Amino acid sequence: MATSIIQGMGLATGFSPANYRIAHPVSCRSLPGLYFLDFCLLLPLELQFAIIILFSKVALCSVHESNFSERRVSSFVIRSDGSLLSALNGGKNRRGELTTNAVGAKQEKEAPSTASSPGHEVLLFEALREGLEEEMDRDPNVCVMGEDVGHYGGSYKVTKGLATKYGDLRVLDTPIAENSFTGMAIGAAMTGLRPIVEGMNMGFLLLAFNQISNNCGMLHYTSGGQFKIPIVIRGPGGVGKQLGAEHSQRLESYFQSIPGIQMVACSTPYNAKGLMKAAIRSDNPVILFEHVLLYNLKERIPDEEYVLNLEEAEIVRKGEHATILTYSRMRYHVMQAAKTLVNKGYDPEVIDIRSLKPFDLHTIGNSVKKTHRVLIVEECMRTGGIGASLTASINENFHDYLDAPIVCLSSQDVPTPYAGVLEEWTVVQPAQIVAAFEQLCR
Amino acid sequence: MIHHCCRSSYFPREHYSVPENNRIPHLLSCNSPTRFTSRRFESIKPDKQLDYVNDNGGPQEYIDIVLSSLRSDTVKLRHAKKLQMFDLRRFMILSAVRETVLNFPGGIVKFTQELKFLSESTERIPCYRVLDDRGQLLSNNCMQIDKNIALKMYKDMVMLQTMDAIFYEAQRQGRISFYVTSIGEEAINIASAAALTIDDFVFPQYREAGVQLWRGFTLQDFADQCFGNTLDNGKGRQMPAHYGSKKHNYITVASTVGTQVLHAVGAAYSLKMEGKDACTITYFGDGGSSTGDFHAALNFAAVMEAPVILFCRNNGWAISTPVTDQFRSDGVVVRGQAYGVRSIRVDGNDALAVFNAVQVARKIAINESKPVLIEALTYRAGHHSTSDDSSKYRPIKDIEWWRLAQDPVARFRKWLEGDDWWDSQAESELREATRKEVLHAIQVAEKIEKPGLHEIFSDVYDVPPSNLSHQENSLREAVKKHQQDYPPDVPF
């Protein structure tokens, strides 16, 4: 009942789905995402009525604003103790998000979608493919190259069907030489194409390190800005289910020092598609890290076109006690741990940092200033991982706001063993996260 | 042989026109997706295609090949062919042939009873040459070259030689920090550039300044890059002699060896997608041909049928490593065949030979959309760079002999003089004028100021992100505070 009232009101106010559509894609660095409001049906009735009342208040003031050329965001925070907070945020580029549940959210429903727009359900690899296909339709210069991406459709089916649709020149099957097809993509990018290089596994891109570091990252700079390299390098990485040491690598730690590249990590179908599109439209070389185990995540994503900001972090859950920074697969371990923590009475704030290079210190900083405690959960090795850089960065910039030393949970500095139990122990588990959080908040 | 596999639409480039000013790939002007290779099988039916014992009798080409090899065979076979008794013919073929050939993945292979290894060394591939050592045309075929082009070639070769000598001296005097000469390879530089058009992308290694000279890069531009001043295209970010110019389609030199070969193949792929009347050319040395990138690039270029000219400057030395320690194959030209790439060996000190070879290679690359490998044999008459003294690892008399007796500039001049297109007075005037020009360019470039602090941080990305802006501010503050510790002539 509550939803129907809200739905009815949604159309009358400025919060209808049409206003969330981006007028036209703009290829500049900061591209705002879409704003969604989600109304939790599991809330007690009193809360639902409270929302309706609040909405009616807002509706009265904003009903005259039928033209949403400038995006305004309302973020409503429903806290676990039932009180309501609202902040009307006038910033053009800041994106707020409504917490889906008071309790730690379910794994699948990370990106809230508005009740009035149906959206469609996709798996993460399908979302990537959708993003890829939309960009290939939009710009004939976009092409894909990699091993088995053409007729085979890609090892994880991200490029399935594209070769038959666009021809095998635009979806190119290459011989097994990562350095080579990365180099080729760089050459093609310098002369006008926008290639997307798929590494069958991120670990194989170690063979492409020379091209990525020396040419991809540097040529725009050393040529004095004459030649740009709008390339996207993507592939699955991270620890899978017993794939062996060589196929369970975290390349983000090795690549993070390379100047001139950008790195992003996707974690949900929603942000996978948005980041894929943003990466393709960016004129900088972007490395998009996917995770082997997340390809079959299902989520409902909007039907409308949307592009996310490459440098923004995503606030998964707002909280007060401590900030948990994470990305990619660890996000799900963290949310599972958050469920346990909420039951125990804690209030974690969970941020999926998404942008691995550069870090979104704005979002992270605001969170640190609020909670004063930071826990970083990552899959990288302890030495020289993303967590290590993030720890240094936060310490440097927000030292005065910290009440406790930053705790960083990461994998041990060992090659990933094959045996299932051993492999599990090298990855940070929810129980460890709960223990570390409790320790941090003491 | 093509008709069987091309059920889907394969549009060779000359069958439709691409708008001149658009870079729209021909994909958009045809209804079905581009198939760039004519031999691609439909992947949904892999087994049926490869098995010759299927209902429609197997691939036509297979039967043709087999028939042609059995043409001298039984009467019954000929009879069967005449009567077009397909089944009988097939039976005969299958039974006779089963023992002789097999359709392995990759194609039909004939069997042999001889246990014979291919020899690892063969007679050296001969080298194409047009002029002899004295500048005389070898064969009676007229050398078709426009007089203006020939004269421009000569003048640019002299310019390159002079520039090299003077810039090298400037480095020795401490005016620039580093330099790479092309002594002995002037013909390769200029003649190959002359055979190309400005639309062809050049992916150089670092000993190809002459290519850029031909295309219009001025002496002042060269000097600016070497001095790294504000007028440099590269904004002072690369070492001297690492030129690059977008408007001349000359991709900036990177210090990494062999990586440019892959870039050239990728760019050729991009040109092929656009259907442009242009190719790419990439240069590398004998040492560069040992890198992994070279082999993969050659392989890729062949598989993708990319219009790229792979030009190897086999000058005998990779810093101090002679070619005998670099490879044991007959130079680089034989590798072409190994990868399925057409190749040729030319005399790198003969400007006309290089010119002809590159001209024809360009036609092959563009019209047939195939890669071409050119190996130019020459000698690195100078040192590897200003950081090297080659007399340490090779006899001086060898260096002197190659530098004087095999000088490509002198040889070309003799041919020009033989045709009365040049004389000694023009020679001395040119040398004098060129020397003055180079010296002047250096003097001017020396005085121009260097790029400012902001150029450290710009162009890393398209727009500097927050962390870089932050770092730039820190640096500015540091320089402001301790001005005496930082170079005074760098603009703030």
TrEMBL record, chain A:
Domain of life of the native organism: Eukaryota
Assembly and interaction partners: Tetramer of 2 alpha and 2 beta subunits.
Cofactor(s) of this protein: thiamine diphosphate
Start and end residues of each Transketolase-like pyrimidine-binding domain: 122-297
Enzyme class: oxidoreductase
Enzyme Commission no: 1.2.4.1
Gene3D superfamilies in the cross-refs: 3.40.50.920, 3.40.50.970
Name listed for the protein in its UniProt record: pyruvate dehydrogenase (acetyl-transferring)
Classification of source organism: Eukaryota, Viridiplantae, Streptophyta, Embryophyta, Tracheophyta
SUPFAM superfamilies to which the protein is assigned, alphabetical: Thiamin diphosphate-binding fold (THDP-binding), TK C-terminal domain-like
GO molecular function, one term: metal ion binding
Reaction(s) this enzyme catalyzes, per UniProt: N(6)-[(R)-lipoyl]-L-lysyl-[protein] + pyruvate + H(+) = N(6)-[(R)-S(8)-acetyldihydrolipoyl]-L-lysyl-[protein] + CO2
GO CC term (a single one): chloroplast
UniProtKB keywords: Chloroplast, Metal-binding, Oxidoreductase, Plastid, Potassium, Pyruvate, Thiamine pyrophosphate, Transit peptide
Annotated localization: Plastid, Chloroplast
SMART domains: Transket_pyr
Function statement: The pyruvate dehydrogenase complex catalyzes the overall conversion of pyruvate to acetyl-CoA and CO(2). It contains multiple copies of three enzymatic components: pyruvate dehydrogenase (E1), dihydrolipoamide acetyltransferase (E2) and lipoamide dehydrogenase (E3).
From TrEMBL, chain B:
GO biological process: branched-chain amino acid catabolic process
One Pfam family per UniProt: E1_dh
Record SUPFAM superfamilies: Thiamin diphosphate-binding fold (THDP-binding)
GO MF term list: branched-chain 2-oxo acid dehydrogenase activity; metal ion binding
Cofactor: thiamine diphosphate
Domain of life according to the entry: Eukaryota
Gene3D superfamilies: 3.40.50.970
Single GO cellular component term: mitochondrial matrix
Catalytic activity: N(6)-[(R)-lipoyl]-L-lysyl-[protein] + 3-methyl-2-oxobutanoate + H(+) = N(6)-[(R)-S(8)-2-methylpropanoyldihydrolipoyl]-L-lysyl-[protein] + CO2
Every Dehydrogenase E1 component domain range: 155-451
Entry protein name: 3-methyl-2-oxobutanoate dehydrogenase (2-methylpropanoyl-transferring)
Organism: Dorcoceras hygrometricum
